Amino acid sequence: MTKLVRAAVLTNYLEVTQYLGFNPRDVLAAVGLSRAQLQAPEHRIQIDAAVRLLEDSATASGCQTFGLSMAESRQLSDFGVVSLLLSHQRTLRDALQVVVDYRHLMNDSLAIFIEEAGKMVIIREEVVTETPMPSRQATELAIGVMFRLCSALLGSHWHPYSVNFMHQAPDNLHLHRRLFGCKLEFGSEFNGIVCPDISLDMTNPNADPAMARYAQSYLDSLQGHEGTSMLFEVRKAIYLLLPMGRATIEQVAQSQGMNVRTLQRRLKDDGCAFNDVINDVRRDLVLRYLDNPNYSLSRIADMLGYSMASSFTRWFISQFGMPPATWRAQKQGAAKVQVDAVGQVVPKET
User: Fold this and answer.
1) What is the spatial distance between Cα 205 and Cα 334, in angstroms, rounded to a whole number?
2) Are residues 92 and 241 in the same domain?
3) What is the pTM of this model?
4) Domain residues for 77?
5) Which of 135, 174, 267, 285 has the highest local Cβ count within 10 Å?
6) Same domain flag for 204 and 278
7) Judgement on whether residues 37 and 126 belong to the same structural domain of the protein
8) How far apart are CA 22 and CA 19, in angstroms?
């Protein structure tokens, strides 16, 4: 089943294109979307089309911070019907749980995991598509929106330690610094936000328990209208847990609120096995990691769950027909050339 999201995930898209003086007609048509669809927030669009639109728009407009530019003006109301429940949660911890519980009503491609480590909390996020594709812009948009949500609920009490991205920094960090106002870490081992543990339990002075109960009752009435795919939910869990060394079937089953046998049965109903899903996610993540020059092969092996680099190399050869070092060298070589107007490959200017 094709995964759909609210068109509201692309809120401010048209405003950003206008600001940049960029006509999005061609990129919209290329992914099968239209201006009219983007102007109807509750209209459902394909996840992959939305993510591809952001990447193509960033490339075509020459704006490396396209996704983050969209996040800068996001409001709590852009979460749709879920915004009423969010605004009346007692603490940030409660609000984040609402985002997790009702994400299918907002953005079903978003995987979120809250990791508490001593006096720090890591809010991990991943944008998961049905087919592997670059998602830098969608990732920055998602983290930017999460940051603004936390800021809206905590106000001046929101003081995160850092915002982390697995991809490399853009040429200009002005927008990142203005929006986040905290330490920025690129080439990180995860995408997300690191904040003090006390942030999660700060009280929201605007919370109204009665309104929260009303909003939750309404949202629960919508639950049956949305189908969920266990296979897709498991993929999202693995995206988050694999770099942490916790993507075992036991941990993934726990993240889905079920035992191992139930998870295996549900996956079998979807025509696959857990090891197949792990392998598919590894194939997707390894190419993303190899694109990052800051990641050594040994580090990549560890992030993919291989304790020995030789085991990782054997797996990579079985999947891609060459060692990872060879794949990376060929990719770097291809990046140094470009195609001219008549289709000839020529060296890129430096």
Assistant:
1) 55
2) no
3) 0.84
4) 4-221
5) 135
6) no
7) yes
8) 8
Which CATH number is 132's domain given? Answer: 3.90.1520
pLDDT digits (tens, 9 = 90+) for 20-50: 999 999 999 999 999 999 999 888 899 999 9
Q: Which two tokens stand for residue 251?
A: 């941990």
Task: Assess whether 8 and 54 both reside in one domain.
Answer: yes
- Are residue 74 and residue 24 in the same domain, yes or no? yes
Q: Which single residue is written with the structure tokens 């988050």?
A: 240
- Say yes or no: 199 and 293 in one domain: no
Q: Are residues 241 and 188 located together in one domain of the fold?
A: no
Torsion of CA 276, 279, 280, 281, to 10 degrees: 120
Q: What pLDDT sits at residue 42? A: 83
Burial category of 221 from C-beta neighbours within 10 Å (exposed 0-12, middle 13-18, buried 19 and up): exposed
Judge whether 74 and 12 are in contact, CB under 8 Å: yes
Give the type of residue at 167. H
Looking at the chain, list the stretches that DSSP marks H as alpha helix, in order from N- to C-terminal side: 13-20, 25-30, 35-38, 47-61, 66-71, 82-87, 92-101, 136-154, 174-180, 209-222, 230-241, 249-255, 260-269, 274-290, 297-303, 309-320, 324-334
pLDDT-based confidence at 80, cuts 50/70/90? confident
Do 84 and 180 belong together in one domain?
yes
Total count of domains within the chain? 2
* DSSP-assigned letters across all residues of 19-57: HHT---HHHHHHTT--HHHHT-TT-EEEHHHHHHHHHHH
Per DSSP bridges, beta strands 162-165 and 183-186 are: parallel
| 344 falls within a domain | no
Chain segment 103-113, per-residue pLDDT in tens: 777 777 889 99
Encoded tokens for 25: 């007609």
CA dihedral 342, 343, 346, 349 (to 10 degrees): 70
Count of Cβ atoms closer than 10 Å to residue 303 Cβ: 21
Q: What is the pLDDT of residues 239-298, one digit of tens each?
A: 999 988 889 999 999 988 899 999 999 999 888 999 999 999 999 999 989 988 889 999
